[in-house]
Amino acid sequence: MSKLYGIKDWILLTAAVSVDAFQEIRLVGDLIPSLVEARYGFLPPNFKKESYFSYVSRLLKTGDINKKLDKKGTVYLELTSQGKKNLIRRFPIFFKAKWDGTFMVVVFDIPEETRRARDDLREKLKELGFGKLQESVWISPYHFEEDLKEFLQETGYLDYVFVMRATRILGKSLKEKAGDIWRLKDLNSEYEKIILEADRILKGESDVIGLKKIWDGYFKVLAKDPILPSEFLPSDWKRKDAYEMLQNLSHTLIKNTRSFKNNQ
Questions:
Q1: Do residues 149 and 192 share a domain?
Q2: Most buried residue, 57, 65, 73, 157, by CB count within 10 Å?
Q3: Are residues 59 and 28 located together in one domain of the fold?
């Protein structure tokens, strides 16, 4: 779900205290989040500090976030009600306690001479976390009708696409097919590699400098993760384990670094 890599999305997610993996944001100096800078030690891939400053300023002006001070005088960002509405629209998967049991199905029939339109549409569907059920049939357990409608209107592809809401899909169980549709086995293997590498650093078997590389890898895998409801995930799904392992590694290294400095 590459939408997670948009700077605007990142800021809104980190300002949303209700989002499990992005529960708080604190600012170092003025506008550098310690969630990124202190916890991870670097800005996520392709992020520039100047762009981050610009987007924070823009979101403050549009009323999506507010700038607050805690009791210690530390600046942090708070999601407004307007910002939450925008966030829910773009990332309903983070706010739905339970899957509603329906699917968004996209079917398209695009002529060969407009191949670019077909490629553009496929990339958009991948961005939204859709999986390919068949060559021109894509499916998602979440509903991004407004996002897709805007895309189709802007690109002029509306006449080629049918969008449906399905309550039941006959045939092989989608839970059985989910692994193939969203390539879950490959994603899980990538999460497992992150866990193993983090464990090697904790055991002193790998260079500590590799921490940045591991977080980079985690974000890249997360960007491809469709964040499916638990009903579709294998019992040994490793995303949460990978996140917790990296958190543990980061906290351990920070603690050790502080201890070393205090003993100097």
A1: no
A2: 65
A3: yes
